[in-house]
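Record format v2
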Amino acid sequence: AQKITQTQPGMFVQEKEAVTLDCTYDTSDPSYGLFWYKQPSSGEMIFLIYQGSYDQQNATEGRYSLNFQKARKSANLVISASQLGDSAMYFCAMRENSGNTPLVFGKGTRLSVIA
Amino acid sequence: GAGVSQSPRYKVAKRGQDVALRCDPISGHVSLFWYQQALGQGPEFLTYFQNEAQLDKSGLPSDRFFAERPEGSVSTLKIQRTQQEDSAVYLCASSPLGGLNYNEQFFGPGTRLTVL
């Protein structure tokens, strides 16, 4: 069963607008972490933001915020004030804390920012 | 440089050839991870080292894949008798502490392997 689902293969957003990238996850582990990574055309994965399953507040890092809805098992990434440099692939990932498991990634969403 | 480096950046191999991919983690980082990223997919875990010990190799797709980190720093991923389905980007990541439960992994730029 797929543990991370990203249903948007591609998204377009106008420069300076906000955009939401969707991510749903599946786990029975009560303790887990959720991550978002950006992968530009250069190939390396750049860590953006982290949300722990027990965190009371939604994570924020500059223009990035994570809309964490635990009951719905969703962890959407919100990028505010989009910039041309935000054009890239974005991956949602999860790590289950029990059993020392590795990161599991979704298939990604390609974001294109339009001037 | 301060980041994770990988070499070569691009590798073209004929089917049946052996290849070796190198990862130089950030100095002092305890943990090292290898991932395989097929075209249009997210990265998939291959194997994990804590210092020189390979603690998890559950993601290696076949016994043709072998990884080592003999001195707890540089790591090599070796693929024997390459097949076309091995074509992918191979990503290396390191993190400063031990354990898969540590949050932040720093990724290298990857090696794009094409098997003809």
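The two ends of chain B are 33 Å apart (CA to CA).
The interface with chain A takes residues 3-4, 33, 40-45, 48, 56, 59, 89, 91, 93, 99-101, 103-110, 112 of chain B (CB under 8 Å).
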